[in-house]
Amino acid sequence: MWERTLQDLIRGLRANKSDESKFIAQAVDEIRREIRSKDMELKAAAVLKLTYLDMMGYDMGWASFNVVEVMSSARFHLKSVGYLAAVQSFNQDTDVLMLTTNLLKKDLSSTPSDIAVTLNGISHIVTPDLGRDLSPELIAMLNHSRAHIRKRSILALYKVIVKYPEASQNGMGRLREKLEDQDSGVVAATVNVLCELARKNPRDYLPLAPQLFHLLTTSSNNWMLIKIIKLFGALSPFEPRLVKKLQPPITDLISTTPAISLLYECVHTCIIGGMLQGASGYALARTCISKLAAFIQDADQNLKYIALLAMVKIVPSHPHLVAEYQETILASVDDQDISIRMRALDLVSAMANRDNLQSIVQQVLSHLVRAGTSSSILPTAAQSLAQHTVPASPTSVKPTIVPTQSPAYRLVLSQRILDICSQSTYDNIVDFEWYLSVLVDLAYVANVNIGSKIRDQLVDLVGRVKAARRYAVKLMVKVLSDDTFSGDGGDESSCAEVLWAAAWICGEYCSELTEPQKLLTYLLQPRIANLAQDIIAVYIHAATKVFGFWATELAQRWDDDLLPEIRNVVDMVIERVSDFNSSPHIEVQERRTLYSCSHSSGKIFLRTDLNLKTDSASKMLLHHHSTQSQNHGFLKACILFGHCSLHTNLILWHLLHKRACLYRTGWI
């Protein structure tokens, strides 16, 4: 049999780690025998061991009555063990709590040491019923002669008010008196309790404002000043006059205090209390922002975080002041701490306006540049495109994409760029050609699955801004001529969706093209077979529109010397479109069929027409009527295709009827 002390129990647990459950079962049996002893010393030792086991997760609810017995001991060292066990094991449903009311009242009128341990116990085990029964005694204890008892009573009264709110009606007067207590600890405890109580209904505590203001201007206790300022932050929305009254002392604290915690609480109270509004709050706002900017530059990560969080709340009212520290804020976007990076992005998003949008976007975009880029400045869109559109030699090896951040963070950066620029329907953008370049740059450097959003914004932007369409078409031609996206069409992070937008824009606004026939080679190149089927369908669709526009231009400035070029282009188009005959995608099949039908009809007409160069006029007339239906079939095919304008189709029909221009030999 092992000794009956707690130390021996702990030693035994350490010595029996291999069979701990068996050892504890034996120990609990021993404790059950000891706890029934009439020897209070032995009973208290058993309760103490049982409390230790309860801390390890073993239930001691079966010994609740024995705990109350130890609590009633006249000896302080035994009573403290009983209260410790009660604090550790009792809860709101413990049935023996109803037996403790008289015991607690008796201990509250005992010696100061007994009162102290009792107040501590009450704050942990109080229930609504105990709060109702003990509140008069606790309120009376607020006038105890000893300061530490008054302080403990105030804190215990808070726990009673939480469980039994009606106690505040009688206790509030005494708490107000304690704000003028001679002991600073009692005053601090009172301020702490009032600050916590005011969270639920601050309006009820407005009458305390004069006394709290006096403490704010006279106290040197930083901890208590923090609580007072928090309390004023909750009160000021209900009393506008407090704002003007509080501005001078809070400004003085912000300017002079070396305590960072107090400084931040002053700034936070100014924000939530509306003290930065109006002309009188402008100087205070500038002071607050300068202090927060210093926090951002501090090595302490916690200070950086709370400073960024506070600046986000100041931006709506003073964006121009926050913008003065733009470089400092943007430096946090690349911080090692992900939480700081996210708060910095929130702040950057909130501070963006027409004046600083371009610089913000360029700097955020620079964080997405692929590893290995030596320059710290992101190249312009023109430079980026020039790098990507240089024809690659067969032996050239593309650099491996190594993201500078995790994919998740790169995705957040990319989405923030799009959100910042598109907010309020592109209200902050003054140069839409610049933003088109940004979208293309983002597609190249994002290396995350953001292509669909870039596609949507490209199409939306070009549709809204007519003045930017020529530049957009020029930009999209360069994108289509580059194999960066088409080579990785199966990779979700390749942003291949931008090709969908590029093809659609070039087809829809083909009148802005300078060399339509050249674009046809990009739209129908063999490597587009690697792309998604919906992108291929748009490619074929756009190719039909571009070919129609090109044919219209030729019809208006026809010359016999153009026929070889026409022949080569038509043959190339028919040959490359036929590569999609086996496509499993129904939309690709449909558009390929309509495209082939239209070009085949035109070619049949040309062949027939060339055979008539020596026939009589009557045969030509007959052929005119026969081919009329063929060209109507061609026109119908174009119209069924869906997007070619009626004017373009009529010009195509007119082109096919220019007999004199088509009397050429060698047509195949």
TrEMBL record:
Keywords, ordered alphabetically: Membrane, Protein transport, Repeat, Transport
Domain of life: Eukaryota
Domain Clathrin/coatomer adaptor adaptin-like N-terminal: 21-596
UniProt KW Ubl conjugation keyword: no
InterPro entries according to UniProt: AP3_complex_dsu, ARM-like, ARM-type_fold, Clathrin/coatomer_adapt-like_N
A GO cellular-component term linked to this record: endosome membrane
Pfam families tied to this protein: Adaptin_N
Location(s), subcellular: Endomembrane system
Any GO BP: Golgi to vacuole transport
Cross-referenced PANTHER family: AP-3 COMPLEX SUBUNIT DELTA-1 (PTHR22781:SF12), DELTA ADAPTIN-RELATED (PTHR22781)
The family this protein is said to belong to: Belongs to the adaptor complexes large subunit family.
Name of the protein in question: Clathrin/coatomer adaptor adaptin-like N-terminal domain-containing protein
